[in-house]
Structure formats: structure tokens, C-alpha cells
Amino acid sequence: MSTYLIKNAKVLGGDAQDVLISDGRIAEIGTGLAAPDATQIIEADGHVLLPGLVDLHTHLREPGREDAETVETGTRAAALGGYTAVHAMANTDPVADTAGVVEQVWRLGQESGRCDVHPVGAVTIGLNGERLAELGAMHESAANVKVFSDDGKCVHDAVIMRRALEYVKAFDGVVAQHAQEPRLTEGAQMNEGTVSGILGLRGWPAVAEEAIIARDVLLAAHVGSRLHICHVSTAGSVEIIRWAKSKGWDVTAEVTPHHLLLTDELVRSYDPVYKVNPPLRTAEDVAALREGLADGTIDAVATDHAPHPTEDKDCEWAVAAMGMLGLETALGIVQQTMVESGLLDWAGVADRMSVRPARIGRLDGHGRAIAVGEPANLVLVDPSARRTVEPSELASKSANTPYAGLELPGRVAATFLRGVPTVIDGKLA
Amino acid sequence: MKRHLISAADLTRDDALLVLDTAEELAHIAERPIKKLPTLRGRTVVNLFFEDSTRTRISFEAAAKRLSADVINFSAKGSSVSKGETLKDTALTLQAMGADAVVIRHGASGAPHTLANSGWLRGSVVNAGDGTHEHPTQALLDAFTMRRRLNDGKGDLEGRRITIVGDVLHSRVARSNVLLLATLGAEVTLVAPPTLLPIGVETWPCQVSYDIDSTLAKSDAVMMLRVQRERMNASYFPTEREYSRRYGLDEKRMAALPEHAIVMHPGPMNRGMEIAANVADSPRSTIVEQVTNGVSVRMAVLYLLLGGSEPAVTTTATEENAK
Description:
The complex is a heterodimer of chains A (429) and B (323).
Chain A: E1 3-11, E2 16-22, E3 25-30, E4 39-43, E5 48-51, E6 53-58, H1 71-80, E7 83-88, H2 99-112, E8 116-119, H3 135-140, E9 147-148, H4 158-167, E10 174-177, E11 190-191, H5 194-199, E12 203-204, H6 206-223, E13 227-229, H7 235-246, E14 251-255, H8 257-261, H9 283-295, E15 300-301, H10 330-339, H11 346-360, E16 378-388, E17 407-417, E18 420-424, E19 427-428
Helix pairs in contact in A: 1-2, 4-6, 6-7, 7-9
Chain B: H1 13-27, E1 44-49, H2 54-66, E2 70-75, H3 87-96, E3 101-106, H4 111-117, E4 124-130, H5 136-151, E5 161-165, H6 172-183, E6 187-191, E7 207-209, H7 213-216, E8 221-224, H8 240-247, H9 251-255, E9 262-264, H10 277-280, H11 287-307, H12 315-322
Parallel strand pairs in B: 1-2, 1-3, 3-4, 5-6, 5-8, 6-7, 8-9
């Protein structure tokens, strides 16, 4: 296996150091390190070195919607975004609710080789919310599933949710809840508020998310389980989670990059590229989410990368699909909203985008310290670069990014997966 | 004026007055034996209706024909749309056929906006009602009617007090009326049960009340909105009887209106539900007049969007009519 010497990298944004990678691990860290023979040298030139990013929430669409994304194209996008591990959501066709499907996705990830793919198992059969899927079988499969979610749909039945929370304790699993009270959001098209009233689009009220989170933190406390909340989008949700954590309950939460930046004002364009679930909220919600991420109430940034083919977005709002791309822009959005605003330093970014998500997903090889002997899952970021998002240049098979034409800070210069570069000079290796 | 008419908010006060004044001028054409002007000869107007709406469609059709435009009626039922054709492909087809204006009625809020801003079409887009969003030509014909009855067909509606009663939440008529009437200086009060008012209504340029009886005595016009069948079993209100009792306009309530006040309804009505039959048929009711005025207002809109700066009623046209 090749040896790489990264010269003058600011480890977690600290002082510049050299990092020697050998045999898939970090072999040496120091200043003025000598390069052994046949070492490839990477001049980091003051770029920031972080642990490889871990996404808790990715839609890779395979099997079933290979027209939108495949494991191959999705993991390319992930590597370019600085990710070394992603969790592939279960709402594929067929649904990932059996050992067979999760093993297929696992194997496709292994074959891609660019990024570890950890399949998420469905909580209930067919995401129908009625009967538990074979959670134990998915855990015992080659995919070794530890995160379970009906994402896209809420596990709305309180008894089913309770049973799922209890059942996965046997193998240290976690239920990741898509918090959306279904009756309050029938036919919902956007955040319910001033803008929805003017646009005549049916509202998705914040309370529909908050009521489920409130119920589920109480349920998790009652049965002594851990609980993860997907894509938190409202100020009220942040408050409830803060309260649950203050009680010492084992509750974690994620926020998407788009909910850290965009608001429902954008829907005034009726451009379906802004249609997403949960919907874009208000500026007050955005501020509360940033604050929650900064103080650790929200543990992780998760992309909810949701590719859709052109025809599902090039249409009237009501019939458009919900979701937006995220993998290749997440780090830039986090730099802009959290680092440049002074809310997080780079060590904080590493914690929220790698360390904590890896811990929530119980991934042993990711989110580790940058230290001698650790697996070399790393990303090198040039924070001073700026780039304009051009949808056609993205590696994803789809182009539904809400950031087209937007200038974002930062550039992923290189990504290493167990010592092997998946991205070098900002391009796929 | 902007190139498209999507929202009543697209109209400045001057734009709105121009439409209303032009409509007044054009209304006189209807009184002539030959009700036709050559203004839009050779232009093609497509009525693209994804929802059933006979009255709005024939109103636009009559308006376009009186201006000598070629009219193509494209109804989604029985067309390629019912076979799954997208809005985009329909638009591209119309573009290929050379539509100068597309009048669109669609069940999805924002569909006309998307049609106008997508680059699929080059012609003007007129919103003839989209989902629960807007219906700007209805607001224009309502304002036209109010101006005729309350202001001798002249000027704006400064200081006039207009009460709109009913299902504001789902009403595109209410949204467009609030915006246009505010532009014209009227004081609007929305009256509805709290369940039928949208979140954020307090930011609209109007007053809101839950009590119809406290607003009638100071209203110059009261507009009753249709309560749609599908709302009746969705717990927006307990029963039709209770709705009618608390928010319906019956003779007793009509008697509380000032002498000069008018009663309006965009139609189609649920007689006995939001409006009593003898109120709808009373001399104060402008319901039939609104339909007549709809043609004049839509003529004005099509003329101003398509005809440009030439006068609507030319000398030649008058001579032709005189022959």
C-alpha cells in the first residue's frame, strides 16, 4: 500500500504539521517529517485537515431509482464532499426492510470503494408503520445495521415506536425518527406560516414535528433507549431536545445544511428545487438551529442528500418531488453558516460532521482522532478557496441543488479512505 | 403593466385603474348591436383549463372573441393531459402552435407562475384561478362592480368598506380581492370562523373578525364566499346548519346593511348555505352583474397584455359598428 505525506496541514485548524500515512493508518505526525522512499507528497499549504466526514442521512436511491442516483454515483459525490462514510436510507424500492436488501446495498458500497456505505434498515415492513421489520436479521447480516429509520415517513404509532426503541437495545441499535405527525401534515406543501398563507400552499406546521419529538423523547426516557431525531427543522424542536438532554436522556439529533441556510421565503418563486421535507422554515428557525448546533444540542450535520431526476422537479410545485442534493455542498454551507459566523471552529466542525455522527451510527473506524495509529480516514479542506455551484458539474446523477449559482467558501482538496485517496486535487482519484 | 397577470399584487394602483377604465370603455361595446372589435385580429388566445370551470372559461372566451382573437379551448379532461402529459409538454405544444396569450386555470397553486417563469412559453400568461392562491381577474371584476355601484364607475375605492365572508383559507378570490382592494384604497374586513382563516392572516392588508354581525352595519359591500362541499365533513365547522346560522347572509342580516350597500358572490352559490335565496335574488345583489362585468374586465386585461399602446376602441372600429 502506498505511503503519503501531507505537508503543512492545519490539523483541526490548529498549527501546521506534517502527517504521514502508511498502510491505511496515520504513521507519524510532526513538523519537518522526512518522506520515506516512494512516498507521494501532498503540499497542504495551510489547508485544514479533518477526520473524514460521516453522513447519517443519505439517499442513494439504489435499488429502484437508479435514474436518480446509484451507489456508484452517490459515493463519488460523497467522496468529493469529503465523506468517508454515509448511511444509506431505507426508502428504496424494494424497501430496505430485509437482510437481503441491506446486504445488497452494503455490497454495492464495498464495490464502489470510494466511501463506506452503511445501510439503514427500515423500522417497519414497507415503511408502513404497522409491523416491525426483521431488525435483528438486518443487524446480524453482513451489513451489520445499527441505525433503523422509516425516513420519509414517521413511525407515528406510539406503540410501534415504543417497541422499536426497546427492541434495538439488544444490539445497541438506534431508531432515527422522521418526526412528522401525519394528520397535521396531510397534503402539506411548505412551512405553515405567513408565506404559505399568501401563496395558497397547504401548510406543514412546526408543531407536527415538535409534537412527535416531544412524545418520542419521553418514550425513549421511559424505556431507557437511545433515540436519534432526523433533520430537525424548527426552533421549538431544538428547545425540546435541549430539555431532554438536560434530563440526561440519550437523545441525539441532526440538522441538514439547507435548514442552516435557506428559508421559506424562497418558496415565493414556486421553484420546486426548494421543495423539501421537512420544509424550509423561517429565519428565526434557522438562527435557533445554528445556535443548537453550536452548543451541541444538535449533535450532527446530516445532508438528507435526496436526488431526483429532472422531470420530478421541472413541473408545478404541487406534483414535484421533495428533496435536494447535499453531499457535495454540505461542508461549504457549514463553513459559511457556522465557521465564518464564529459559531464553530474547525474542531467543532470535525465533531459535528464526523466524530458525533460516527458515534451515533456506532462506526468504529470513522470519526476518530487524528493521531498516530488511527485509521487514515481524512479530508483536507482549503478554506480560503471559493467556488460557484454549477449543477452540471456535480458528480451526483441528479442536479436538484438549491445552491446553483451560489458562491460557497471552501473546497475539498483531498479525501482519504483508510489511507487511499478517493479525491486528490479536488478531483476523484 | 407587467407582461403576465399572475397575482393581484402584480398591479400597481395605476395599472388597476387603467384596467378598470379600459373595461368601462369596452363595456359600451356590449350595448351595441355588433359586439365586436378588430383589436386582437390574428392573435391567438388559448384557454388552458385543468379544472372544470364553465363560467370562467366562457367569460374569457367571450372576451377574446369580442376582440376578434382566435380562441382555442384546451380542456384537460379528454385531452393528452388526462393521459399523463406534463404541464411542461402542454406548454411546449401551445408555444409551438403560436399562442400569444395563455389563460390558465389550474388546481395547483403557483402553476400559472411556473408557466410564466419557466421559459416554456413566450406569450403572456393570465391566471384564471390557481389552487388556493389567486384569481386576479375575479378581483378586477369585483372592483369594477363595486366602483360602478358605489363610485359611478370612476376613480379608486378609497375609504370604501368591504366585508368578505367565508372560507378565506381555501379562497383564491379572497386573496386576490384583499390585495387589489388594498391597492385601490378600500378598507377590507375578512369574516370567517377561525378554522377557515390562514395562519399569518394578521399580516395581510386588512382587518379580521370572527363576527359577521358586528361588521355589516359599516359595510359598503359584502362579498359572500362559496363553501365547498369537501370542507363540510372536515371539521372546519360542526354542521352546515351551524355555519349558515353563524356566517350565512340571510334577510335579517341583509337588513342590517346600510341602504346603499351591495351584496356580492363570485358564484357558483350554495343557496341556503352561505347566502339565502331571496338575498341572492334581491335588488342589492350584483351577482348577475358581476358575470356581465367579467367579460368587460377580461377584454381589458387581454387587450392591455396583447394590444399594447393602441387605443382599445378605435375610430375605425366605431365606424364598423355604426355600419
